[in-house]
Structures are given as structure tokens and as C-alpha cells.
Amino acid sequence: MKGDGIGPEVVDSMLRVLKECNSQSEIILCDAGSEQWDRNGRRDKSYIPDATMKILEESDACFKGPTTTIPVPDAPRSVAVTLRQKFELYSNIRPTKTYDRLTPNKKLDCVCFREAMNSAVNWANKYHMKKMVAITKRNILKQTDGIFWEEVQNAVKGTDITLSEIYIDNMAQQMVVAPEQFNGAVLVSTNLFMDIISELASGLVGSIGLIYSANMGDDFAMFEAAHGSAPQFAGQNKVNPTATVLSGAWMAEYLGETEIRNAIFAATEQVINEGKVVTWDIGGNASTTQMTDAIIKYAKEKLRK
């Protein structure tokens, strides 16, 4: 689903990267978003047409380009919320990693989980992460955050994960003052608090155009960039493709193509740290297409080694 605004441009970049890396996953293009809803006379109850939903139901995963949710009465709920509920995608996961050139004096490498404790523990075990930080305001929200804290404690029982708790107000300050203390950590919190902290973490990286994410359930996953549809930049070939490209590489890994994922991630990091062919938001003047080409070049080289 290419989505709205800048969606078609960045999704085309991602698809081109996967194709040039010889991904064998079958990709089916389908419509979703407010622009197609507008074209259809705003008659549908959803931003996702029935034909698209049928395709999704027969798929292993999906990629959602950025979409616009129109702020008018009786407009449909967002594409993301619709798919999270439809496919019970209870884990919202946002890895966050800084780049040497963009933040030479601050290093952050963590992953943010909203609510899904067991998924967070599975992630920690898979990637050998030994720290988990629960973000609460349990001194004030005694019942709700008290329940959350109990769930986190239960989730890490029987593992070698070291669990700590930090209150949301202090967490916001610590992320700015000393983000390195959270390197190698899985950050977990309730929906609202993690929404705030994951956005703060994104800001520390240097651009929302670098942040990729996924929503996962037991049998399905949705991959997407963390940024919005930015309609003011649509059609200008100037936006950063990184978030979408990395989300697509993560989807490739989910579908069994780990080598392709690793090559794309390494290539993207190399392009960003070199700084020669990058978009305006991270200090360059390259177009979306030019930055994508640079990522493809390095990714193909790495796959040949």
C-alpha cells in the first residue's frame, strides 16, 4: 500500500531496493489511504477498500506507506489502527539507533515497545539484549501503572534480563541528558508514555525520516515508516527514503530474507555516515532517487561479498 502524500515516492524507493537486492518475496500492490477514499467520493466506511482487505487476508505481511487521516467528522479511522485491530497486531516496535555523522557526541541504540511485554522479552532474548527499562508513573497512576509493572515483572521471570523502572518525567530528561545509559536496552511502557518517549528518541537520532517501525501479532505483521504522509513535499523527489527502505528491509527479514536485510541496513548506514548522497533533512542536497541509488549500490556490493 503506497499510501498518500510522499508515500508513493518512498515506497517506490523501497521496492526498487528490494528488487535490486533480488528479493524473492511476492509483492502485490493495492490501494489504501485518504486520497483513494477521496477519489471514490468518500463513500466507503474505511480507508481500506474491500479488495485490498481481501488481499491482506491472504498475505503473510504487509507494508503500509504513510497515509493521511482526514480530521473531519465521520471520516474513517486511520489505516494503521484499522489494520492493528483487524489482525490483532498487539506489538508496536520501533528500533532507534543514532548515526555517527549526525550525532557524533550522542550514541543511542535501543528498541521501544508499546505494551506487549511477552514480545519485548522475546525480542530481548533473540537479540541478546540484557536490559529492560519499564517507563511508568506508578507513584501517581497507582492502579494502571501498578498493573503494568506487575506484568513486566512477570514477563522477565526466569530470564537473565535485568529489569529497572523509571518514571516518565525523569525518563524524558535522561533521554536528553545521557541517552547512552539506554544503549542495548528494550524500553517498554504503556501506549501514551511510549508514544512520547519513542518520538523523543526519534528526535535524538536527527530526523524522523530515519525511523522505521513494525506492528506485529501472532500471524501477521505490518511494516511502516514512523513519519507521516507530508503532502507538502509530495512529488518533489526530495524526502528521505531511509525509514521506508529500512522498514522494507525488516519486512524482508520477517519473510525469511535475513541476508538482504543485513545488506540494506549496512548500506544505508554507510550512505548516511559518508554524507555525500543524502537528503536535505540530514545535511545533504541529494534527491530521494539519488539517495536510493546510493543505498542500492552499496547493498549489492555487500551481497556479492
Question: Could you walk me through the main structural features you see in this protein, from its secondary elements to its overall organization?
Answer:
- The protein is an alpha/beta fold and 305 residues long.
- The chain has 2 domains: 7-90 and 213-280, Isopropylmalate Dehydrogenase, CATH 3.40.718.10; 103-205, Fructose Permease, CATH 3.40.35.10.
- Helix content is 43%, strand content 14%.
- The chain contains 11 helices and 8 strands.
- The protein has helices spanning 7-20, 34-39, 50-57, 79-86, 117-126, 144-156, 168-177, 191-205, 242-254, 258-274, 288-304, and strands spanning 62-63, 91-97, 109-114, 131-136, 162-167, 185-189, 212-216, 221-225.
- An 8-stranded mixed β-sheet has the order 1-8-7-2-3-6-4-5, sandwiched between helices.
- β4 (131-136), α6 and β5 (162-167) form a beta-alpha-beta unit.
- α1 crosses α9 (242-254) and α10 (258-274) packs across α11.
- The chain starts with 6 loop residues before the first helix and ends with a helix.
Reported CATH architecture of the largest domain? 3-Layer(aba) Sandwich
Number of strands: 8
Q: What structural class results from the helix and strand content?
A: alpha/beta
Q: Let me know the largest β-sheet.
A: 8 strands, mixed
Per DSSP, the total helix count is 11
- What top-tier CATH class of the largest domain fits best? Alpha Beta
CATH-defined topology of the largest domain: Isopropylmalate Dehydrogenase
